[in-house]
Hints:
This protein is mainly α. The chain has 7 helices and no strands. It has helices at 28-59, 69-74, 76-112, 121-126, 137-150, 163-187, 191-238.
Amino acid sequence: MENPYQSSATSAGAVAPLRSSAYFKNPRLLTVTTRIFLCLGVLVSLGAGALALTELSLMEEYSPTDGLDDVYDDLIIPTLLLGLTQFATGIGTIVVIAMWVYRMAWNARYFAGARNMDYTPGWAVGWYFIPFANLWKPYQAMKEIWRASDEPARMNQIPVPFWLPLWWCLWLVTNILSNVSTRLTFRADDISEGMLANQASLLAEAVNIPLCLVFLLIVNRLSRMQWHQQSLRQVQAVA
């Protein structure tokens, strides 16, 4: 059976011809769903930030050495609701974005040819879950997807826009701040430690908002580029 990712020989600047063994996977539904979850991420971060500010305001009424039980008791219902919402939204976002990245990588290999790509669709997603390698490998995979979707015939020569490294910087900072916030929250025993944990949480949510918005821009642009490449191939097939 022929490899569905078999690369085709193309001249510089030419559009790769359609190959019967490879095909374009429609990303429309995944793109729309990803947009929805990114918008939900912004709303959840706004809610989490508002709750953190409320907790900080309540903590200021207590002595720094007082316990945190009274503060948490006053906000137990909104904290529980927000926690459940964050969990459900977080899991859904991970699943949807992973599926979207896989679909984008699949189409990018179709446009550029497998021999011109370093990352398979599976590893474009899988590197996010490999410790240490997840600090740079997913970004490299996304750059490759972008270039192959923009101009596949000369993908190794074209630059990527500034919002791609901006997205990755925001991603790393958000994950670091979220990890710090979680550790501080579990270790907090008094008001002063609780305030520090809330400040870290507030900062993490503040960075997550532009992260979602920048990635939303990438989702929209990348989806449009792939539809443009597919339209070129359809025109070539008819000609």
